[in-house]
Amino acid sequence: MPAPIRLRELIRTIRTARTQAEEREMIQKECAAIRSSFREEDNTYRCRNVAKLLYMHMLGYPAHFGQLECLKLIASQKFTDKRIGYLGAMLLLDERQDVHLLMTNCIKNDLNHSTQYVQGLALCTLGCMGSSEMCRDLAGEVEKLLKTSNSYLRKKAALCAVHVIRKVPELMEMFLPATKNLLNEKNHGVLHTSVVLLTEMCERSPDMLSHFRKLVPQLVRILKNLIMSGYSPEHDVSGISDPFLQVRILRLLRILGRNDDDSSEAMNDILAQVATNTETSKNVGNAILYETVLTIMDIKSESGLRVLAINILGRFLLNNDKNIRYVALTSLLKTVQTDHNAVQRHRSTIVDCLKDLDVSIKRRAMELSFALVNGNNIRGMMKELLYFLDSCEPEFKADCASGIFLAAEKYAPSKRWHIDTIMRVLTTAGSYVRDDAVPNLIQLITNSMEMHAYTVQRLYKAILGDYSQQPLVQVASWCMGEYGDLLISGQCEEEEPVQVTEEEVLDILESVLISNMSASVTRGYALTAIMKLSTRFTCTVNRIKKVVSIYGSSIDVELQQRAVEYNALFKKYDHMRSALLERMPVMEKVTTNGPTEIVQTNGETEPAVLETKPPPSGLQPTSQANDLLDLLGGNDITPVIPTAPTSKPASAGGELLDLLGDLNLTASPASVPAPQISQPPFLLDGLSSQPLFNDIAAGIPSITAYSKNGLKIEFTFERSNTNPSVTVITIQASNSTELDMTDFVFQAAVPKTFQLQLLSPSSSTIPAFNTGTITQVIKVLNPQKQQLRMRIKLTYNHKGSAMQDLAEVNNFPPQSWQ
Fold it and tell me: Which terminal Cβ of the chain has fewer Cβ within 10 Å, N or C?
C-alpha cells in the first residue's frame, strides 16, 4: 500500500477546492483511505493519519472512527505518537463516551513517567476531559505533582487540580496542604495557576474562603511587586508587567474581601495604587483598571476609593473603544443604587451616549439615564429622554416610553408638567406604550380638576387630522366626551383658548369613528364620547341620536352593543340619561393584583372578574353610579354594599339595569320591583342568633358547572333562613388526573342586578385521582328573583404549565333563585 499523503499536502489540496461539494469529495476520499489504513493495523503511518483526521474534525467533518486509534497512540512509547494521541483524545473524546475510561491506566502511567513532557501531556489531557471517575482515580498523582519542585509540572498540576475540584468537590481538602507554598513561587506561570486554584477553592467552599483570608497580605505584596517592578521582557505586555497575573490576583482579592472588614482594609491601599498608577492609553491597562473597579465596588472599601472607581468608569465613557464604553455603562448601572451621587457627576457624559450609533451602548445609556432621574433633575433628564424617544429606533420606543411614564409619575414637579409629558410621549410613540398608559392618563386628568379645560384643548389640537397614534386618540376622545362643554366655552387660562363649536367637536369624533386607522377600542371610545356629549351640548342632540342609531347595525359587535344600549337610553330611559352620563368623579388609585382592578374602558368604569383575595383593611370598594357595579368581592363577614349618591333621584335607582339585558325582558321595566336606594339590602341583612342557612337544601339539585381536562366543579345549593333572597352556593373542585393541581384560584362574576360574595377556599391544591376536593362558598343576593347566571374563571398550575379557562354557567335549577 502506498504511503499516505502528509498533513501539509492534505491542507494544501483542500484549500484548492473551489466549491463545498469539491471539498467534501476530497475529504470523503481521504477518510476512506484512512479507514483502510486503520483496518490494516498500519502502525507506521497511524500518527500521520490521526493528525489528518484531527484537521478534518476541525473543519467540521465526522472523525469519531479515530477514537480507538488515539488510545493506541497514547499507549505508544514514542513521544510524537503520544502527543498526537493525547491531542486526539482531547478533541474526539469526552466523559459521555465510555471509551475514555480505557485511558485511565495510560494516564496514570504517564503521570509517573520519567520525562516531564510526557507527564505534562497526561496532566493537560486529564485537566481537559477527565470524568469524575478518572479524577477520583488520579487525584493522588496530581497532588504529588503539585508538590514537586519542577515549575513546568507544578503549573500544569495546579490547572489539573482545578478541573478535579470542579468534577469532584469533596476532593478539595486533598490539595489544601499543597497550596501552602504555591504563592512563594517566583515563577509567574506557577503563581498564575496557583491563584486560579485558590480562586476556585474559595468560590466553592466557605471554609476554604475563611482559611485563605490570611493570605491577603501576601497577595497584596505580590501585586505591589508587579506594579513597582521595572521592565521585564519575559512578562511585559504594552509596558505593563504581567497583566494576566494582576487581573487574577485582583479577582481573588475581590472574593476574599467581600463582606470582610479586615481583609478589605488590608487591600485598600494597593487598590488605590493600582487605580492611580496604571497606564490607560493601552487596552491592557484598561483591563486591569476594570478589574480594580469591580474589586473596589465588591469589597467594603472606603468612600473615597469608591468615588475614584466611579471616576475611572467615567473616563471609560470618553474612550473611543465601544467595548470599553459598554463595559463602563454596565458597571455604572450596577453601582448607581449604592453610589448615586458619585454617578450623577457623570450624567452629561452618560446622556451623550444616547446619541451613540451602537445600539447596545444606546440601550445601556437609556437604562442608566432612567436610574439617574430624581426630583432635582427631572426636567432636564426628561427633555433629553424625550428627544431620544423622537429619534431612537423602534425597538427602543416601548422601553423608553414606559420609563418616562414611571419617572414622571414618581418625580413630576407639577400636574401640568406631568400631563404635558405623557401627552408628548403619546404623540411621539403612542403605538408603543403599554396597555395601562391610557387608563393611567385618564385617571391623572380626572384627578387634576383645575387642568380639565387646558387638557381637553391640548388634546383637541393634538389629534386634528392625525389619528395614527391610537392611545392619544383614545384619551382625546374620552376627554372631549367628558369635558366637551369646557372645550367649547373657551375658558382655558393657561394658554390662548381655541374657539370650537359643537359641530366641530362632533366632526372630529365622527372622523375617528370612520377612520381606517381607528381600532375597535378607539371607535368605542369615540362612540361613548359622542353619547356623553348629548348631555353637555344643547344644539346637536338630534345629530348625536342619528350617529348612535347608525352604529346599531355595525358589524363590530362591541360597537353595535354600545349603540343599541345608547339608543335604548334615548328612547326608553331618557329621564335617566343625565344621571347616567354625568361627569366622572375623582378616581382613587388603588394598587391591585391580577383581575381585581377596575378597568377604565371608553370612559366608563367596568367591572373585571372578581378575585377571591380579601381586600386590605380600610380599603372598601365603593360605587359612584348606583347599581352600575353590583358585584361584591372579599370574604368579610359583613360585605360592603355600594351606596347611592344623594344627588340622584331615588326613583332612578331601580331602573339602572343592564340595558342590553333589559331589552330582552318580556316584562316591562315598570313591573320590576325597585329596591330602596336609601337603605340597600345587605347580603346578610336581618341575621340573628338563629341558624343562618337551611341544614338540608331540600329539593334543590346540585349541578356540574365545569368539567374539562380532569377538573370537575360541582355546585350545591342552600337558601338562607332569614333572607330568602340569599342563595348560598358551595363549590366542590375535584381532580381526576394523575398529578395534583396547584395554585388553584376560582373567580366569579354575575350580572349587575345581583350581588356576590366569595369566601376563602379550603385549600389551593386539588389532590390527584379524586382523593380530595377544594370547597369554597359563594353567597349571591338576588332581590328581584331573576334567573341566575354566572361567569367563572379558573386558574391553576398542572404538569408544570399555567392553565386558565373561562366558562358560562346558565343551568342553575329554578329552586336556587325563585
Answer: N
